């Protein structure tokens, strides 16, 4: 049977108190509405239509042509929102999932279970429900003795007996598509809010004698709808636990899962150890047997096997196996490290490749450079890559030695096996096997330090001539 989906994403989300459109607020590194669309793609929905209103262009800009769109110019309730899909879906045969764009935690299997119940019972509508020990504020699911749903009662309208019901409406539904739009045509706005409610469709179908079912999800935390920053933080915590648990089941060690943050698309190999304060973001891929952290952030980077990274930040970097980084290193976009490279404390690498066995142990900046195999770059050495107008390249050949506090003024090339003496400022090429010295010769003035000190004492006493 054809599966279609309608995502309700037209609300402004005033309670978020944000310039950012509500469903674009991220959790786990992705906007909420993208989580919903991803789940619908996983259940093989043939068509997904997103109802947009406020911030429509921002949503379209993010989701692109993955989905279809319908505009709800005035927010007149959930029933009115779904009605905007009638032109696109009204005549289609099949079933339609209706889901809110601010419910990012609903899983693929939960939707499949709801759909299976819907099809097996020939229902006109199936409501996704959850069991809540504290159901205040939620609409209650009222069932007949044999279990069929007889209606949804909003909390404010509950009788004392109905208020005791702990099965609540999550706002996600599965409908026989044509029956959905037929019932929607009968929904009115005769209520205190003067809005058209999708829940009224359930009552209409029940009165028509149609079968209405409810599927209660196993994990009620999936039902969370994000309407403010408090709920956003709660959803973030729940998703983090879900992601971390899956990585642990896949063989990754978390020393402190509560203080380790992994975004949705990150991949991590078995036997990798994550220390507290680790943040792995974007499309980062971590190999096997690595040790990451503590207090390390890695964004959109590729880290191969047996790498150690301590208290460092990496963004759009590529690190080959058996390399060590940190503490307090910064690898910026375009950093590419070979095997067995050592990057030490307070080293910054930008748009530079360092081949196998290269070492930059401390207090250095390597930018716009190609560094060969087994090069040693001493403390405080920098590649001077920017002249105020252009970025230029520094090339360092295999087995070269760059002494401490050396400035390599790009564009410049240091040949294979060359030796640059500490404190030098190099502006010209150094040929292979050569040694370069570019500094003033030291001059000592006997007794001159004592003369300077005596002069300063006189000035402080006011006796200076």
Automatic annotation (TrEMBL):
Molecular function GO terms recorded: glucosamine-1-phosphate N-acetyltransferase activity; UDP-N-acetylglucosamine diphosphorylase activity
Q: Where is this region: Pyrophosphorylase?
A: 1-229
| Enzyme Commission number, as recorded | 2.7.7.23, 2.3.1.157
Q: Where does UDP-N-acetyl-alpha-D-glucosamine bind?
A: 8-11, 22, 72, 77-78, 139, 154, 169, 227, 332, 350, 365, 376
What does this protein's record comment on cofactor binding?
A: Binds 1 Mg(2+) ion per subunit.
Q: What cofactors are annotated for this protein? A: Mg(2+)
> Domain named Nucleotidyl transferase: which ranges?
5-219
Which residues does the record give as Mg(2+) binding sites?
102, 227
Pathway(s)? Nucleotide-sugar biosynthesis; UDP-N-acetyl-alpha-D-glucosamine biosynthesis; UDP-N-acetyl-alpha-D-glucosamine from N-acetyl-alpha-D-glucosamine 1-phosphate: step 1/1; Bacterial outer membrane biogenesis; LPS lipid A biosynthesis; Nucleotide-sugar biosynthesis; UDP-N-acetyl-alpha-D-glucosamine biosynthesis; N-acetyl-alpha-D-glucosamine 1-phosphate from alpha-D-glucosamine 6-phosphate (route II): step 2/2
Where in or outside the cell is it found?
Cytoplasm
Which Pfam families is this protein grouped with?
Answer: Hexapep, NTP_transferase
Instruction: Outline the segment boundaries, as ranges, of region: Linker.
Output: 230-250
Q: Which keywords does UniProt give here?
A: Acyltransferase, Cell shape, Cell wall biogenesis/degradation, Cytoplasm, Magnesium, Metal-binding, Multifunctional enzyme, Nucleotidyltransferase, Peptidoglycan synthesis, Repeat, Transferase
Q: Where is region (N-acetyltransferase) located?
A: 251-465
The residues that hold acetyl-CoA are 385-386, 404, 422, 439
Family annotation (InterPro entries): Bifunctional_GlmU, GlmU-like, GlmU_C_LbH, Hexapep, NTP_transferase_dom, Nucleotide-diphossugar_trans, Trimer_LpxA-like_sf
Q: Which NCBIfam families match?
A: glmU (TIGR01173), PRK14354.1 (NF010934)
Family designation: In the N-terminal section; belongs to the N-acetylglucosamine-1-phosphate uridyltransferase family.
What function does the entry list? Catalyzes the last two sequential reactions in the de novo biosynthetic pathway for UDP-N-acetylglucosamine (UDP-GlcNAc). The C-terminal domain catalyzes the transfer of acetyl group from acetyl coenzyme A to glucosamine-1-phosphate (GlcN-1-P) to produce N-acetylglucosamine-1-phosphate (GlcNAc-1-P), which is converted into UDP-GlcNAc by the transfer of uridine 5-monophosphate (from uridine 5-triphosphate), a reaction catalyzed by the N-terminal domain.
What's the protein called, per UniProt?
Bifunctional protein GlmU
**What's the source species for this entry?**
Paenibacillus eucommiae
């Amino acid at each position: 049977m054809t599966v279609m989906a309608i995502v309700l994403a037209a609300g402004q989300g005033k309670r978020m108190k944000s310039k950012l459109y509500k469903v674009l607020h991220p959790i786990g590194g992705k906007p909420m509405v993208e989580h919903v669309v991803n789940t619908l793609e996983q259940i093989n929905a043939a068509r997904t239509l997103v109802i947009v209103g406020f911030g429509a262009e921002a949503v379209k800009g993010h989701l692109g042509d993955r989905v279809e769109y319908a505009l709800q110019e005035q927010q007149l309730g959930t029933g009115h929102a779904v009605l905007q899909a009638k032109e696109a879906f009204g005549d289609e045969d099949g079933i339609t999932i209706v889901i809110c764009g601010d419910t990012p935690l609903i899983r693929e299997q939960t939707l499949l279970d709801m759909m299976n119940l819907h099809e097996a019972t020939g229902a006109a509508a199936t409501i996704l429900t959850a069991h809540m020990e504290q159901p205040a504020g939620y609409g209650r699911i009222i069932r007949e003795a044999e279990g069929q749903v007889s209606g949804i009662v909003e909390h404010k309208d509950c009788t004392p007996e109905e208020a005791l019901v702990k099965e609540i409406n999550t706002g996600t539904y599965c409908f026989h598509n044509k029956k959905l739009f037929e019932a929607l045509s009968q929904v009115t706005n005769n209520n205190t809010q003067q809005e058209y409610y999708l829940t009224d469709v359930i009552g209409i179908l029940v009165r028509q004698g149609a079968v209405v079912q409810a599927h209660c999800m196993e994990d009620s935390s999936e039902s969370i709808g994000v309407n403010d920053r408090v709920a956003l933080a709660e959803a973030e915590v729940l998703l983090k636990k879900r992601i971390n648990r899956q990585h642990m089941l896949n063989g990754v060690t978390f020393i402190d899962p509560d203080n380790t943050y992994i975004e949705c698309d990150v991949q991590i190999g078995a036997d990798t150890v994550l220390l507290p304060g680790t943040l792995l973001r974007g499309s980062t891929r971590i190999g096997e047997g690595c040790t990451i952290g503590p207090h390390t952030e890695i964004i959109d980077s590729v880290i191969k096997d047996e790498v150690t990274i301590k208290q460092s930040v990496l963004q759009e970097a590529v690190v080959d196996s058996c390399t060590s980084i940190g503490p307090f290193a910064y690898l910026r976009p375009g950093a590419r490290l070979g095997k067995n490279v050592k990057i030490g404390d307070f080293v910054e690498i930008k748009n530079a490749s360092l081949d196998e066995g290269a070492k930059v142990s401390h207090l250095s900046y390597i930018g716009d450079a190609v560094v060969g195999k087994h090069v040693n770059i001493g403390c405080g050495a920098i590649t001077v890559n920017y002249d105020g107008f252009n970025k230029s390249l520094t090339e360092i050949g295999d087995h070269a030695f760059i002494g401490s506090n050396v400035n390599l003024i790009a564009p410049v090339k240091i040949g294979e096996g060359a030796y640059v003496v500490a404190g030098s400022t190099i502006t010209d090429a150094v040929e292979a096997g050569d040694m370069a010295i570019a500094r003033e010769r030291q001059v000592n003035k006997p007794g001159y330090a004592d003369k300077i000190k005596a002069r300063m004492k006189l000035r402080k006493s006011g006796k200076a001539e």
